[in-house]
Amino acid sequence: MPGTLRLSMRGFKILWETHKWIGVALGLLLVLTAGTGFLLLVKKEFAWIQPPTQRGQEAPSEDLLSLQDVYDRVFALGLPELRAESDIDRIDFRPGKRVHKVRAKEGLLEVQVDAVSGAILSVDRRNSDWIESLHDGSVLGRWVHDFVFPIAALGLGVLAFTGYLIWLWPKWKKRRRRAAP
Predict the structure, then answer these.
(1) Measuring CA to CA, how many Å separate 10 from each of 4, 64, 161?
(2) Residue 51 backbone class (left: φ over 0; alpha: ψ -120 to 50; beta: rest)
(3) Tens of pLDDT, residues 84-122
(4) CB 109: neighbour CB atoms within 10 A?
(5) End-to-end Cα distance, the chain
(6) Shortest CA distance to 127 belongs to which of 33, 74, 51, 53?
(7) Could you read off the pLDDT of 117-129 as tens digits, one per residue?
């Protein structure tokens, strides 16, 4: 019996140490991910995170500008981040608001163009894109996103599992002691 008790205490200490060091290693990453996740959840509530979507003129869909017209309007601004089609990451069209959101590949810039008149409604930074890259680790490099964060996710699973074991271990030991003759 004393040998079994010593072995189980050693197992508990190994479990405790494993849990502790995985927690230390992943704690900062967890705080960073939770903080950036919160900012991404509320991004539409704060203009400094993501510019609010403007509203363009109401008109039937036949009156909408072509993509070439949208390009011409955006390139005419002379912005260093948006000089050619290759500088554009994407164009989001919001049909209900009749607006095109032109996002630059570099510089976190977004230009909102009225889809009917072609008027420039907004030129602003999209800090939400940078926050998202921090949230998923890609700001540190593709390898961090593809390898480090998945390993960290597995580590958090181990942390949860070992935490439950550490929590249940004393209860199990107490129940075993009560059941022993």
Answers:
(1) 10, 72, 18
(2) beta
(3) 999 999 999 999 999 999 999 998 999 999 999 999 999
(4) 21
(5) 13
(6) 51
(7) 999 999 999 999 9
User: Cα 101–137–93 angle (5° rounding)?
Assistant: 10
Structural tokens at position 84: 């050619």
Return d(Cα 43, Cα 48) in angstroms, integer: 8
Q: Left if phi > 0, otherwise alpha if psi is -120 to 50, otherwise beta: which for 118? A: left
Q: Could you tell me the CA-to-CA distances from 97 to 50, 59, 123, 154, 181 in Å, in that order?
A: 17, 10, 17, 42, 76
pTM above 0.70, yes or no: yes
Alpha helix (H) residue ranges in 42-148: 67-75, 127-135, 142-143
